[in-house]
Design brief:
globular; homodimer; alpha+beta; DNA-binding; 5-stranded antiparallel sheet
Chain lengths: ~250, ~250
DNA sequence: CGGGAAGTTGAAGAGCGTCAAAAGTAGTGG
DNA sequence: CCACTACTTTTGACGCTCTTCAACTTCCCG
């Protein structure tokens, strides 16, 4: 049932219920529980009202596509709940997941007019959607929003470089250890449980993120489990039984 | 002669001649031949004068380090001549080159206060240097400079994702083909020769960029040469003898 | 012309991928 | 409530690509 939702939200087959304008409501953003994590954190009341005027809410079900690589970049998004993966494909189907996005993460500012990657929900996810033209107009008007976005982009660049180091130079064990620690750190930053860390994505998604196959990911989890560095718990949770050893592994020592 | 210059320019051992303030000169930037490629392209006269007031020039010799990962991020730079590599290291010496920078490229806007990567000259290179605090103050004053920087950052993010696809999912042949085409495209963008493309970096640097060993890079060049897709010319130039086939290869078809 | 670094080539081996099958898990319907 | 189905995960056996180690060649620059 991987593709119960074949249509992407930005495709022609958008169900009306999926994109709800929220502009009419009394300031949906001021009630937003994850605002401090997002682009909307630290905005003035004025800025937030302008943003709230153009925002819609998008709901995605597991496996549902938000947009595909090459689609015209009509919207920018901010994840408010759930997990979204962004990925690039080769013509023969090889897939590289370039990032997992969690509440607070921003996506959709392409440098030309089409998305440079596809985006798909890992589990049930909710996003704020901004028409790109209007969003960019707001950026011109509110430079400190732009500064916040620049800082987020710089941070993502640093993360991307770390990922290149992982993909280019780390072994399978080092990659998996790094991945678990990243997930854990990210959860901590968002105020979620960091030790039995929640791993919502499939082995296949993890493989596509780490440049490995499903089988190698699975085998590596088994190795780490037998070495008592981790333990697999029900509900997709993984306990970091020996965090120090994991850190050592991840850093390549 | 890899390490004739052990000191990095930002280290304590900076030779005085290497960093020359140019603020006193009559607008060094207005005479800059590569301005249209850089952050300085499309600035107003006012903006350019403010930028010129804080700029210095830095000259690097082959193999010389500009700064290392973890150094306090004191300056931002713009490459005006030559080639610079940026890289990350693992404690045991494994190296991942995360980018080669050419005239027009910008570096040094770290998201915290230290550089997240090292930078080193591949060949004789010249950079414009801006004290980071002053540069950021200028950004606050001139939002369109910030917008230009945001666009550059977004572009670099797209490039980084392409590189993750390469590192995670492409074969050695595909990586080398992709690399040569990227170099060629970049040269074209800067108005340099794109067909016998100039390859200033060593096999070892290329390997560290593509997640391969020197030997594999060398072997792959030989393969491509024997298959008549490329031909190695003197002076570090490579002719793309069968560009269509290279494109096919690079895209993984 | 000589010495040292960079590049090329060869042989052997390791790590991860591929193919295949078994075990576990979840959702569905009688 | 349990059986049925479909998918995900795990495990095994084998093979291939790339790495490792080593020797040789070419290219610079003094």
């Amino acid at each position: 049932m991987k593709h119960r939702f074949l249509e992407s939200v930005e495709g022609q087959g958008l169900a009306p219920a999926l994109r709800r304008p929220e502009g009419g409501l009394p300031s949906p953003c001021s009630a937003c529980a994850v605002r401090h994590l997002t682009i909307c954190g630290g905005l003035t009341l004025d800025e937030m009202q302008h943003l709230a005027a153009i925002v819609s809410s998008v709901e995605l079900y597991p496996g549902q596509s938000l947009f595909q690589e090459g689609d015209p970049a009509a919207h920018a998004y901010s994840v408010t709940a759930g997990t979204v993966k962004i990925y690039k494909l080769l013509p023969d189907g090889r897939c590289q997941v370039t990032g997992f996005l969690f509440p607070g993460d921003f996506l959709g500012l392409a440098d030309n007019d089409s998305y440079a990657y596809g985006a798909e929900a890992v589990n049930h996810a909710v996003l704020c959607s901004y028409p790109r033209r209007k969003f960019e107009a707001l950026l011109e008007r509110f430079p400190d929003m732009e500064r916040r976005l620049l800082n987020m982009a710089n941070h993502e660049l640093a993360v991307a470089q770390e990922q290149m180091l992982l993909l280019g130079r780390k072994t399978a064990k080092e990659r998996v250890a790094s991945f678990l620690l990243m997930l854990s750190q990210g959860a901590a930053r968002r105020g979620q449980r960091e030790d039995p860390v929640f791993v919502p994505m499939s082995r296949s998604d993890i493989g596509d993120y780490l440049g490995l196959t499903t089988e190698t990911v699975s085998r590596t989890f088994t190795q780490l489990r037998k070495a008592k560095l981790i333990s697999l718990e029900p509900g997709g949770r993984i306990a970091l039984a020996d965090k120090d050893a994991l850190v050592q592994l991840a850093e390549g020592a």
